[in-house]
Amino acid sequence: MPDDASWLDGVVVPDDLSELSADVDAYYRELRLAARRRRAARLTGTRAWQRFAMPIGVVVCSLTLAGAVFAILTLGHPGRDLGPPRAPVASAPALPPPGEVGGLLPNVSVRTSLGAMAARDLRPALVALVPLHCNCTDLLKTLAAQAGEVRVPLVVVAPANQDAEVDALSGQVHSGAAETVFDLHGALAAAYDATGVTVLGLRPDATVSFVQRDVGADVRLEPWLSQMAVPAESLGAR
After folding, report:
1. How many domains would you assign to the chain?
2. Domain of 145?
3. Which residue from 90, 198, 89 is spatially nearest to 134, judged by alpha carbons?
4. Fewest beta carbons within 10 Å, which of 43, 100, 131, 154?
């Protein structure tokens, strides 16, 4: 505007006050923003905030990270739906004696991470009897994957009080499930004349469906595993 012009020349008076609604809304938005800034300044300007803001932020970030890791581990390794369900221990009088194919697993006690338990209580499972320091982790991972196809775990039985390779197995199996137990006196290995890595199928009723000794990395057990899921008494009734 020219210097000698009246300030009224630039003033426009609307005919309807509703034409100023956008300006009114903008004015109140600025008031609310200014109020928020004042509240934030009162909080962040305190001595307590300046002293504890950084430690609190670190703690919150740490908890968030821990929660994320826990969720990943939990959701990434969901509870395995293992089956078939356990059946009562077979009691048919015509069964072969324990320690033979078709008979019951010998009723020996093994040590697990939860304490001592009867070996028959591990049913159903693919049981691997391994020698001490077997150097067979890759083979056991293969067996666990095959057992996982019929939704049963691999139970690895070591003939000692402790075996570092067997202890570390569960954390290395990513297909299927593996449990480790210890047969302190080697009773199961003796009962089945185990040589090398010996595997046997433990049915839901604690009978043994098959035994294979000295298995290698190329072993394929799917045909035997699929039959293993059925209790022996059910097979006899067919």
Report:
1. 2
2. 109-236
3. 198
4. 43
